[in-house]
């Protein structure tokens, strides 16, 4: 199994100069934690993905609507496959190693390469809420961002009412910065967003 070696990739990519999006997403590496495998999404994941993206509790606080049919889910996966092919920003699928079940996604929803800043987004099946799964995935992606992408700041935002996502960001070591008032139009309503972030020096001090 090919798993990202953070330190090795950091030397290869960052040591050669500015990191470009295609340096990372040209061949999105697998990441592994104690319970999770973060890897590319495939069409074989369509049923597992549809199980949670069709759940309105899961989609209550995200920017996208619950999927109404499995064709909606297949369309999203095909979009992700195109992103992989184009070497552009694309999601990791979250696989629960014990069962081999596909249970969510996590990605950098944007990456300002010239400013070394990126933002994390994630979604998880309700069946796995309350188990620390999202926090485990976010911590791994934060580590990857700082050690392999040369980031200096990683941020994440959530709707003001999304206490579950707030807890994930806090447990992942991110700090609350403030509320962005009516900063995004979500499902027909202008929403306040809470902003969290972690800086590279803060991450390094926590790792010691």
Describe what this molecule looks like in 3D:
This is N-acetyltransferase. Residues 36-192 form the N-acetyltransferase domain. It holds the Pfam family Acetyltransf_3. The chain is an alpha+beta fold. The protein has one domain (6-207): 3-Layer(aba) Sandwich (Aminopeptidase), CATH 3.40.630. It is 34% helix and 29% strand. It contains seven helices and eight strands. The chain has helices at 6-13, 21-25, 46-53, 70-85, 133-148, 163-171, 200-207; strands at 31-32, 36-39, 92-96, 101-112, 117-124, 153-159, 175-186, 189-199. The chain has an eight-stranded mixed beta sheet with strand order 1-2-3-4-5-6-8-7, with helices on both faces. The longest helix has 16 residues, at 70-85. It is globular.
Low-pLDDT stretches are 6-16
* CATH topology assignment: Aminopeptidase
Number of strands: 8
Helix % is 25-40%
Distance between the termini: 29 Å
> Please, how many domains?
1
